[in-house]
Amino acid sequence: MLLVVTYSAAARTGLRNLCRRHESVVARRFGRAALLDETVYAAFLALRLRESHGGDVQIERTEPFNEFVAVDEPVREAAAAYADRSAKATPYAAFAAGTEHPDPDAMRGREL
């Protein structure tokens, strides 16, 4: 997928127009950003937008996030347990304290 992010009002207008005119290449729209199909035509449209607006348009190539490859099982289990906690106002650090769930500071320091 191609992620197109805009940083000015004119570039946002251009992106909005691109998405309206070429719905077939748009996977998802997020206001200032859009995900486009990974096709040569979508790349052409994104590049055309960047040529018109310069540095106000950023284009990134993305890949789907596979949690089973990128993240260890304890992290996935901690996310599920935290989402299912009884006290919804409890911050994760307090929730994980004294358990086998990963420490938030340790997770911050690790790259995927």
UniProtKB/TrEMBL annotation:
Annotated region (Disordered), positions in chain: 93-112
Comp. bias (Basic and acidic residues): 100-112
A Pfam family that the UniProt record links to this protein: DUF7855
Residues in DUF7855 domain copies: 1-64, 66-112
Record-linked InterPro entries: DUF7855_C, DUF7855_N
The protein's name in its UniProt record: Uncharacterized protein
The organism of origin for this protein: Halorubrum trapanicum
Phylogenetic classification of the source organism: Archaea, Methanobacteriati, Methanobacteriota, Stenosarchaea group, Halobacteria
